Structure prediction request, 224 residues.
Amino acid sequence: MQADFSRPVLAIDTSTSFLSLALRACGQTFVWHEDAGNRQSALILPQIGALLAEAGVTAAGLGGIVYAQGPGAFTGLRIGAGVAQGLAAPFDLPLVGVPCLDAVAYQISAPCVLAATDARMGEVFYAWFDTENHRRLSDYQVGKAADIVPPAGCAEPQGIGNAFALGDKPPFNGTVQMPTATNYLDLAAGGRYPATDAAHAGLLYVRNKIALTAKEQAERKGAP
Prediction:
């Protein structure tokens, strides 16, 4: 199964508090990007409908749907993937999942890029990339920012992602810039990410635990 980028394609990113949508159709890109907080589930379908109407296309006329695969905000990822599956299933549309850290990294072109995002609970999601040569240099990981080390031979690392806005940020130079749904659309159009049907579309998790107990929170704060 392949997405058809000669037809209109929709991209959905709900991996952060932002609701980010992009629809490429008829040589134009129609976008919606807004900090929706906990209103993503209420806004996503109406805003997708508005973009489709603005472009003059229907869900049945899409050549595919691109979605943020993770890692990221657990609830947001599930909202985005669920809506993508719900739109795709009736029309047997291909779905293309793009890992969130890839979208972060490919905002810049360099041989040694650290993509790092806020994972909450005092940790960050991160991975290393050579975006000049389209290679990922490490696994997708989660951990303490201070513990991140570059891969062998990775000189002059450049960092990017909202982890660089944290008090405990990674120990490298970096910018806070985060991608939008348009970045996901551009990456998927390059053909490096496989398409699947709605039934087999999945999310990328690098952390099994999504919340701390009260006891664990107290321990992390050093409380008795």
Notes: The first helix runs from residue 40 to 55. Confidence is low (pLDDT under 50) at residues 209-224.
